[in-house]
Design brief:
The protein has about 220 residues and is mostly helical. Helices cover about 70% and strands about 0% of the residues. It contains 10 helices and no strands. Helix 1 crosses helix 6.
């Protein structure tokens, strides 16, 4: 089981955390502590020594995954703002496989922990969407918060529905699944984001005319 970080000089705590991210991504949160310990090359007792409980280990995994997603989003925004090729990121999509797998497991698990995880994703999405607008990569919205929420929930929903209706033959092979999903999704996603779908703005004008409380901001 591969961890989500490459360096060999990780601290024991970080090595356990990364092993847990990879194990939870592949098997779900029912994976036992002893499996995480084996992946990290430590004893189960040492896992508990560092984290206190499996629940606290998962909480730290949640925070780590959210930080990595945030960093990846900001990296892509910076790359686009500098005029670098988008496909540099696409070519290294495999390194994000444990993150995607962990996201899926969180959505499938549901409950208050998953809700908290998604709520934090929504908050982060507002921040890096605003950064994209400021960098000139994205157009501003009449309601930035609502747009960030819609984009995030749409992406998560598409991912969850895809794996539910067409699960990978080997659930542990996250790299193959992530590449398949991105290969199938990137063209229509980028096309919609770049060129739009409707041929004119009549539907938007109708909405803005009849909505009882028009969104704040200037019309484009």
């Amino acid at each position: 089981m591969r961890s989500s970080s490459a360096p060999d000089d990780l601290t024991t705590r970080a090595r356990i955390r990364d092993a847990a991210v990879a194990r939870f991504a592949a098997e779900g949160f029912g994976a036992p502590v002893r499996a995480v310990a084996a992946d990290a090359g430590v004893s189960p007792a040492l896992v508990i020594h560092h984290f206190g409980s499996k629940e606290r280990l998962r909480h730290e995994c949640d925070q780590h995954v959210l930080a990595l997603i945030r960093a990846a989003k900001n990296e892509n925004i910076g790359r686009a703002a500098e005029g670098k090729s988008f496909f540099e990121a696409f070519a290294t999509v495999e390194r994000h496989a444990p993150l995607v797998g962990y996201l899926l497991r969180s959505l499938q698990a549901g409950g208050t922990v998953a809700r908290s995880f998604v709520d934090q994703m929504l908050t982060d999405s507002e921040q890096y969407t605003a950064a994209a607008v400021e960098a000139g990569v994205a157009r501003p919205s009449r309601d930035e918060r609502a747009r960030a929420r819609y984009l995030t929930l749409s992406a998560l929903g598409a991912l969850l529905l895809s794996v539910t209706l067409d699960p990978p033959a080997d659930p542990a092979d996250l790299t193959a699944y992530v590449r398949r999903f991105f290969t199938e999704s990137y063209l229509p996603m980028i096309e919609l984001y770049t060129e739009g779908f409707l041929a004119d703005r009549r539907m938007l004008d109708d909405y803005l005319l009849y909505v009882s409380d028009p969104p704040r901001g200037e019309e484009s």
